[in-house]
Amino acid sequence: RSDYIADHIRNTYRLPEARLITIPRGVDTHIFDPIKADPARVSALRSELGKPDRFLFILPGRLTSWKGQMVLIDALAELSDAEKAHFQVALIGDAQGRDDYLAALTSRIAENGLDDLVKITGHSSDMVNLYAAADLVLAPSTRPEAFGRIAIEAGAMQRPVIVSDHGGQRETVVDGETGWRVKPGDPADLARAIGAYLGLSTAERQNMGRKARTNVERQFTKSGLQRATLEVYQSLLSGE
Question: To the nearest whole number, what is the mean pLDDT of the chain?
C-alpha cells in the first residue's frame, strides 16, 4: 500500500525482506481526468462554494480532528487580510455523528472571524467535478495516513495539493513540484505553504498541476496497481 505501511510491518513483525512487496494504491486516471469534468457543473460548484475572482481551496474528508480541519482554520488565522482576500475555503465532508467536533470547528471559525471565508458543505460524491472546480486541494492530516488517496485523485485532476509530511502522503507529493508537504499539526507551516501557492504565477500553478498529473501517471494508477498485483500472483503460482 505504501512504504510507510511496509516499514510498519517490517519493524513490527520482523518479516524477511523477500516476503515484503509494496504496491501503491492507484487512481483510475480515465475517470479522474480534467477532460471528464462537466464545465457547467464545475462552474456551478465554483459559484456555490466560492466567490467570483477568488481561488477555491477545498479540504475533502470526514469531519474529524484526524483530517486537520482545525489545523487549517488556525493556519488561515495566521494569514494577512490581503492574502485572505484572494481565496475561499470549502470543507467537504460529514461529521458522521461527531457533533462536538463540528460545533468546535464552527466555533473556531467564528472566533477567528472566518465565517465569510470558510464553508462547511457536507458530503459530496461528485469528486471529479469538485476537484476540477478547486484551485488547490488540502490534506493536512494530523495522524499518518496509510496512503491517503486525496493527493493522487487531486493530482490526477491536475490540482496541486498541500499534505502533511508523514505517512503515505509523504510518498505521493513532490514538495515544491506537485504541491507542498508541511509539518503535521503545524498551522504556521501550513500558512506558509498556502502563501507559497498564492505567490505563484498562473503559468507556475498550471505547470505544477501538469507535474502532479504526470507524477500520478508514472506511479499511482489503477492499472499499475492491477498489473503489479497480478505479477505477484503469477510469481507465486510459478514458484519463483
Answer: 94
| pLDDT at residue number 1 | 65
pLDDT along the chain (240 residues), means of 10: 76 80 91 98 96 96 95 98 98 92 97 97 93 98 93 98 95 97 98 98 98 97 91 84
Residue 146: all three cell numbers together: 496509510
Q: Would you say the pTM of this structure is higher than 0.90?
A: yes
CA atoms within 13 A on the CB side of 161: 32
Residue 126: is it exposed, middle or buried by C-beta count within 10 angstroms (0-12/13-18/19+)?
A: middle
Q: DSSP letters of 190-221?
A: HHHHHHHHHTS-HHHHHHHHHHHHHHHHHH-B
CA 191 to chain centre: 16
Give CA separation, 185 vs 53, 164, 169, 172, 204, in Å: 30, 8, 14, 19, 27
158 within 8 A of 226, measured Cβ to Cβ: no
With CA atoms as reference, report the closest residue to 89 among 107, 75, 103, 104: 75
CB 36 within 8 A of CB 29: no
For 119-135, write each residue's pLDDT tens digit.
999 889 999 999 999 99
Distance CA 138, CA 65 (A): 14
C-alpha to C-alpha distance for 208 and 181, rounded to whole angstroms? 14
